[in-house]
Every structure is written in structure tokens, then in C-alpha cells.
Design a protein that fits this description.
0% of the residues lie in helices and 48% in strands. With 126 residues, the protein is mainly beta.
């Protein structure tokens, strides 16, 4: 089992950058595939980015491709989301999620992830 805690959210203007962090407890972090999802007001939670257990494969939603970068540091039990060129439509609560890393192919459905953090708010003003 793994517990996840996100940090790094905030309020900023469009065009700015922000880096989110997700710290995980437990010595098995490196066996999990990790992902970021987000949920805007009155909208469903949607996939943003994912990374396999080694960090060698990454996956992105089309809406963030080229602007966001997911990475991980298994020695620090942390996954990151670097967000550049932020837009007002990126405003949402961002959640970190984890799933078993075996045969990971970039799962984009939230139902495939067993563990979730509490979320961190990102607000982008236009």
C-alpha cells in the first residue's frame, strides 16, 4: 500500500509555470506506475500524465502535451509534474495517483488507479 501527498499548487497568471510534487510513503514506491489527474469545477476528473515505474515511459493528454512534463525520483519516493505555459483552462485540483506497475501501458482511466492523494489546487488567472 502507498500513501500519496501532493504539494506545490498555487495561484498564478496565464503563461506562468508551476511544479507539483507528490511524495509517497512506503518502500515499494518504485514498483508503482504513477499518474496525475485533474478535476475542474463541475467537470469529471481527467487524465493528465503518467509515468512507468522506471521513469522511461511517459504518457500525456493531448491538452497538455508539449507544456507539461511528468518525472519521478525513486530514491526520493516522489513524482513531479512540471507545468509550463499555463492556461486558464488548466485551473483544477490536481491529484496524484498510483497503480501496480506491472505491464503498465499508460492507463488513462481513473478507475485503474488504486491509490490517490488529497489533491492540490492550481488556479490560473487570464
Amino acid at each position: 500500500q502507498v500513501q500519496l501527498v501532493e504539494s506545490g499548487g498555487g495561484l498564478l497568471q496565464a503563461g506562468g509555470s508551476l511544479k507539483l510534487s507528490c511524495s509517497a510513503s512506503g518502500r515499494t514506491f518504485r514498483t508503482y506506475a504513477m499518474a496525475w489527474f485533474r478535476q475542474a469545477p463541475k467537470k469529471e476528473r481527467e487524465f493528465v500524465a503518467a509515468i512507468n515505474w522506471r521513469g522511461g515511459s511517459t504518457y500525456y493528454a493531448d491538452s497538455v502535451k508539449g507544456r507539461f512534463t511528468i518525472s519521478r525520483d525513486n530514491d526520493k519516493n516522489t513524482v513531479y509534474l512540471q507545468m509550463n505555459s499555463l492556461k486558464s483552462e488548466d485551473t483544477a485540483i490536481y491529484y496524484c495517483a498510483a497503480k501496480d506497475g506491472i505491464n503498465f501501458r499508460g492507463a488513462t482511466s481513473l478507475y485503474e488507479y488504486a491509490y490517490w492523494g488529497q489533491g492540490t489546487q492550481v488556479t490560473v488567472s487570464s
